[in-house]
Amino acid sequence: MDELLNPSVFIRLVAAGTPLLLIATDNEQRSESLLSRSLQQGLKDMPEPRSWSCTDGFPNQEDTIEPLKALSWAINQEGRGIYIFKDLHWFWQDHPFIQRLLKDFASQRRAAGKVLVLLCPRVEIPLPCSPISPYCAMPCQTEPKFAVICKPTETRTRR
Fold first, then answer.
1. Nearest to 50 by CA among 7, 66, 39, 102
2. Percent of the residues in the chain that have a pLDDT greater than 90, as a whole number
3. Which domain holds residue 85?
4. pTM
5. Which of 16-30, 102-116, 141-155 has the weakest average pLDDT?
6. For the chain, how many structural domains are there in total?
7. pLDDT, tens digit, 9 for 90 and up, residues 90-139
8. What's the chain look like in SS3?
9. Which candidate, 87, 103, 114, 127, has a CA 20 to 30 Å from the CA of 95?
């Protein structure tokens, strides 16, 4: 999937239950703004997105600067939510625990509305995570592009 991200596309992905979304962008602020606008336009019952960086962690959450702890914290939050990771791409290539958490989160059956959004300058999915990454996108210098790292729950369920 190589599509420009816009509010209607993001709303559709959240409603479909997409658990992981990789956004290749060189403009984090613009991408975060787009996600916030999406909430106002079509996901009004969704809490405001929470953003993580390797220097600040999640605001007002102690002990979330370390990437593995931050990822665990976001995954363990109850209910709906959008958790934006600005710097996880710096850590996931050689970190099997982060890769395992992402794979486990993607494979869990859950209601639509909990999404981990990974912002990065280019799409470089670690090889062990490639089975859960059927789509990739090329980096884009002006508009954010995205890759769905895992298909929505309904398409992953075996009968």
1. 39
2. 25
3. 3-156
4. 0.79
5. 141-155
6. 1
7. 888 888 899 889 888 888 766 678 889 988 887 666 655 554 542 333 23
8. CCEECCHHHHHHHHHCCCCEEEEECCCHHHHHHHHHHHHHHHCCCCCCCEEEECCCECCCCCCCCCHHHHHHHHHHCCCCEEEEECCHHHCCCCCHHHHHHHHHHHHCCCCCCEEEEEEECCCCCCHHHHHHCCCCCCCCCCCCEEEECCCCHHHHCCC
9. 114
Q: What is the CA radius of gyration of the chain?
A: 14
Distances (CA, A) of 71 to 87, 111, 142: 11, 19, 28
Within 10 A of 59 (CB to CB), how many other CB atoms are there? 10
Q: Which of 129, 102, 127, 128 is nearest to 116 (CA)?
A: 102
- Helix 28-42, helix 7-15: angle, nearest 10: 70
CA 58-59-61 angle, to 5 degrees, is: 70
Token couple for 121: 């300058």
Q: Does residue 158 carry a pLDDT above 60?
A: no
Residue 13 pLDDT more than 70? Answer: yes
Question: Which of 141 and 112 is assigned the larger pLDDT?
Answer: 112
In contact, 9 and 21? CB cutoff 8 Å: no
Q: Count of residues for the chain?
A: 159
